[in-house]
Amino acid sequence: MRLLLVEDDNHVAAALSAVLARHGFAVTHARSGEEALQALVPEGNGFGVVLLDLGLPDQDGYEVCGKIRKRTSTPVIMVTARADVRSRIHGLNLGADDYVVKPYDTGELLARIHAVARRTVPDDAATPGDDALHLGSVRIELPTRQVSVDGSVVQLTRKEFDLLALLAQRPGVVFRREQIISEVWRTSWEGTGRTLEVHVASLRSKLRMPALIETVRGVGYRLVAPAA
């Protein structure tokens, strides 16, 4: 996923960019509000999430958030030391999707990034007016957590569904193992790798589509959308 980090402190930005890169994000760093707005042209410029610091040198972060929301629907997470409820409400009213207070736990920040990104379903996977993902003969109903292949319901465990839904919302995109573990199991990679492999194998078997989830050696997994 491409992520726009709006942060005027180069040391903070460098440290956070390194962490995000290790979790599979391609980070673009903007040092001012104007630089951020230019980076989002045209129509969000392919960014999945914007991490917006409010203490910017040229414009107030709230003002930048309002301008971003007028230009694109790209999810915005405000990152700030302003912890009072009034500031949070103001940010959310301006169109922010989430609000993280400094100092924050990196794991929590990553979870929030994945959460807001998950709400944005790509056009090629969604049908207007339908809360389901359609990938060839596979239908994934998000509200009811039901999966069917050629109209036949496939019984999945909770984690199997979460894993499939995560991969299916961005077909073709490689998800790092660490990222999947963080998002689906809400824990670190250590000791959970074998569990992920077992769940991938189970999904391939239950859906009767061995090629649906591709292993990217040394990196992670991606969903290969089957032909309709």
From TrEMBL:
<dbReference type="GO" id="GO:0032993">
    <property type="term" value="C:protein-DNA complex"/>
</dbReference>
<keyword id="KW-0238">DNA-binding</keyword>
<feature type="DNA-binding region" description="OmpR/PhoB-type">
    <location>
        <begin position="130"/>
        <end position="225"/>
    </location>
</feature>
<protein>
    <recommendedName>
        <fullName>Sensory transduction protein RegX3</fullName>
    </recommendedName>
</protein>
<dbReference type="Pfam" id="PF00486">
    <property type="entry name" value="Trans_reg_C"/>
</dbReference>
<dbReference type="InterPro" id="IPR036388">
    <property type="entry name" value="WH-like_DNA-bd_sf"/>
</dbReference>
<feature type="domain" description="Response regulatory">
    <location>
        <begin position="2"/>
        <end position="117"/>
    </location>
</feature>
<keyword id="KW-0902">Two-component regulatory system</keyword>
<keyword id="KW-0597">Phosphoprotein</keyword>
<dbReference type="GO" id="GO:0000156">
    <property type="term" value="F:phosphorelay response regulator activity"/>
</dbReference>
<feature type="domain" description="OmpR/PhoB-type">
    <location>
        <begin position="130"/>
        <end position="225"/>
    </location>
</feature>
<dbReference type="GO" id="GO:0005829">
    <property type="term" value="C:cytosol"/>
</dbReference>
<keyword id="KW-0804">Transcription</keyword>
<dbReference type="InterPro" id="IPR001867">
    <property type="entry name" value="OmpR/PhoB-type_DNA-bd"/>
</dbReference>
<dbReference type="InterPro" id="IPR011006">
    <property type="entry name" value="CheY-like_superfamily"/>
</dbReference>
<dbReference type="GO" id="GO:0006355">
    <property type="term" value="P:regulation of DNA-templated transcription"/>
</dbReference>
<dbReference type="InterPro" id="IPR001789">
    <property type="entry name" value="Sig_transdc_resp-reg_receiver"/>
</dbReference>
<dbReference type="InterPro" id="IPR039420">
    <property type="entry name" value="WalR-like"/>
</dbReference>
<keyword id="KW-0805">Transcription regulation</keyword>
<dbReference type="GO" id="GO:0000976">
    <property type="term" value="F:transcription cis-regulatory region binding"/>
</dbReference>
<feature type="modified residue" description="4-aspartylphosphate">
    <location>
        <position position="53"/>
    </location>
</feature>
<dbReference type="Pfam" id="PF00072">
    <property type="entry name" value="Response_reg"/>
</dbReference>
